[in-house]
UniProtKB/TrEMBL annotation:
It holds the Pfam family HBS1_N. This is Elongation factor 1 alpha-like protein. GO terms for cellular component: cytosol; Dom34-Hbs1 complex. The keyword GTP-binding applies. Its main location: cytoplasm. Component of the Dom34-Hbs1 complex, also named Pelota-HBS1L complex, composed of dom34 and hbs1. InterPro entries: EFTu-like_2, G_TR_CS, GTP-eEF1A_C, HBS1-like_N, P-loop_NTPase, T_Tr_GTP-bd_dom, TRAFAC_GTPase_members, Transl_B-barrel_sf.
């Protein structure tokens, strides 16, 4: 099994037949290190903690193979294994939520008519000033799965052969499709997909709220919740059972915090939603940035209980930092879930106090008031999330439930006719018929089966052999779709998480130096910084402070300032320390230094 084993003379069938499932028996002769053995054993335990023992298709052997293949990455292994067993959330998402959409409030109905699309003329934040073009890359140390040269990896390939044949045999059309015309024809008939990022201070109740949403929406069944409740009780964390719907890894559960972006999806009569649940803890802000880059709108969760709103809202709290971040990377629409109101006896005074303070702040952060709404709710009790509040509980409130409000929040129109840009969020081996698969969200442009693509900064070409949108095979996809692309003609080593997929005849040219228009959160001088764009994370340096700008009209207020004060809009020069990054005009970036987010904006 070891990657050091001499595989050149192996025969795949023999290997699979001979394999007895014990990787450790002659570990030394196979070259596996004691550390790797320990990691596999630990990984097996952690995977079992999450998925339990009762899925017959997921044997210990398969778990170990998968862990090895994914470099002991627990989360990706679990996702893969559940996929294999046909149990992913996305596969379960087909159910339509039984929302009583006939009964939205007048306010909600009016909002629904008016919509939230279109440019915002007086946006103070730079991201909104420029139509974003493609995005950048990656990244330091994201590993692609291991190359398939070992018996275990071959075993994994074999596992993947269980995929349904219709998904694995896409046909390459002979004639080019006019994707933009096809999309326009279908647009009004298709349910739009919206990605929503759930943000807020640590412990505000983000995961619980979304767990509740998925549960009440019918995506997660009663049995699963009961199982989570029992398991949570066993480790003395019974109140976390709903949060576990999203917090899938053993570490997240043991610590009671979200570490990486959890993804889940649900559908209502009016729309299809993909939830990105961002970690609140400040150590995990880079993960949150990765999610925000793909979001259409944000749900900001506030803990309304005494002292907690204030803690999240102070200078070191994540309420402000998250809201500023999502706004600076282009999110225009925000729904504030004033949560845990059950702990405040559903006090209108508390709701109004929070609403008043946050409205002021969100306006200064660049959110237009028509794009901000406040919903009183409790994720734990489920009041005003999918079902309305229990009779008489919130007599002072006549507005929409959270889900009704989500349905009115239409995603901003996407540039489907521009050159293709899609940041890779995952790379995996899809079996013999689909040797290499990448996934991500198309940010700009469109793609069709047969297209020749490159993944910048790489220059290796690949052909798109098949496309899946929301797990359904299709001939084409456009900006806004979450897709899987099955590729031929390229080795996995040439594809990395954070790379930007472009058509080979219109590639993005990676940059070593660039100028950006940014909003400063902290004081800036020429200094060392980390550059984040989606999952891309690389070190660099602010080399020049070019000018500060007026927030209202964007004119230069001062050339060559000595420093840039927090809250200022400015143009700066940045150089990249290592290899050039796949960034271009319009790419949204976040700058961090010493564990703090110091600025965010777009390439000028
Ligand atoms: N009373 C009450 N408690 C809640 C509510 N929502 C969440 N909680 C509790 O608050 C704690 C934190 O909830 P989580 O959902 O894990 O919070 P989170 O914001 O996802 O936390 P991070 O992902 O770590 O930032 C848990 O004990 C929940 O049971 C609510 O509406 N009412």
């Amino acid at each position: 099994m070891s990657r050091h084993k001499n595989v050149r003379t192996m025969n795949l069938a023999d290997e699979l037949d001979d394999y007895d499932g014990d990787y450790y028996e002659d570990g030394e002769s196979e070259g596996i290190s004691p550390e790797d053995k320990a990691k596999i054993a630990d990984g097996l335990r952690r995977v079992r903690e999450v998925i339990g023992d009762d899925i017959p298709l997921i044997t210990d052997d398969k778990i170990e193979e998968t862990l090895w293949y994914y470099y002991f990455d627990i989360e990706r292994s679990i996702t893969y294994l559940l996929n294999q067993a046909g149990m992913t959330a996305t596969k379960k998402q087909k159910k339509t939520v039984a929302v009583d959409s006939k009964a939205p409030s007048q306010k909600a109905a009016a909002k629904a008519q008016q919509g939230f699309e279109g440019p915002s003329p007086d946006d103070v934040v730079i991201a909104a000033q420029s139509q974003s073009k493609g995005l950048g890359k990656g990244q330091k140390a994201e590993k692609a799965p291991r190359a398939a040269t070992t018996s275990i990896q071959k075993g994994v390939e074999n596992l993947k052969l269980t995929e349904p044949p219709e998904k694995t045999a896409p046909k390459i059309p002979k004639k080019k499709i006019d994707v933009v015309a096809e999309y326009e024809k279908l647009k009004s008939k298709r349910k739009e997909n919206a990605n929503l990022i759930v943000i807020g201070h640590v412990d505000a109740g983000k995961s619980t709220l979304m767990g509740r949403l998925l549960y009440d929406a019918g995506v997660v069944d009663e049995r699963t919740i009961q199982k989570y409740k029992q398991e949570a009780e066993k480790i003395g964390k019974s109140s976390f059972a709903l949060a576990w719907v999203l917090d899938q890894t053993g570490e997240e559960r043991a610590r009671g915090v979200t570490i990486d972006i959890a993804v889940n999806a649900f559908e209502t009569e009016k729309g299809r939603f993909t939830i990105l649940d961002a970690p609140g803890h400040r150590d995990f802000i880079p993960n949150m940035i990765a999610g925000a880059a793909q979001a259409d709108f944000a749900v900001l969760v506030i803990d309304s209980s005494p002292g907690e709103f204030e803690a999240g809202f102070n200078i070191r709290g994540q309420t402000k930092e998250h809201a500023l971040l999502v706004r600076s990377i282009g999110v225009q629409r925000i729904i504030v879930a004033v949560n845990k109101l059950d702990l405040m006896k559903w006090s209108q005074d508390r709701f109004d106090e929070i609403k008043q303070q946050l409205s002021q702040f969100l306006a200064t952060a660049g959110f237009q008031s028509k794009n901000v709404s406040f919903i009183p709710c409790s994720g734990l009790t489920g009041d005003n999330i999918v079902r309305g509040p229990e009779a008489g509980l919130i007599p002072w409130y006549t507005g929409p439930t959270l889900i009704q409000e989500l349905e009115t929040a239409k995603p901003v129109a996407k540039a489907v006719e521009k050159p293709l840009r899609m940041t890779i969020t995952d790379v995996y081996r899809g079996g013999v018929t689909n040797p290499v698969t990448i996934s991500g969200r198309i940010e700009i442009g469109n793609v069709q089966v047969g297209d020749i693509i490159v993944a910048a900064p790489g220059e290796e070409r690949a052909q798109v052999k098949g496309i899946e949108v929301d797990n359904e095979a299709t001939d084409w996809a456009v900006a806004g779709n979450n897709v899987q692309l099955h590729l031929t003609g390229i080795d996995m080593d040439h594809l990395k998480i954070g790379d930007v997929v472009c058509h080979a005849d219109n590639p993005l040219v990676p940059l070593k130096e660039f100028e950006a228009k940014i909003l400063a959160f902290e004081s800036l001088t020429p200094m060392v910084i980390d550059i984040h764009r989606g999952r891309l994370n690389a070190s660099g340096r602010i080399t020049k402070l070019i000018a500060t700008l007026d927030k209202g009209n964007g004119t230069v207020t001062k050339k060559k300032p000595r420093h840039i004060a927090p809250g200022s809009l400015a143009v700066i020069s940045i150089s990249v320390t290592g290899v050039p990054l796949p960034l271009e005009k319009g790419s949204k970036i976040v700058l961090r230094a010493d564990g703090l987010t110091v600025a965010a904006g777009v390439l000028a």
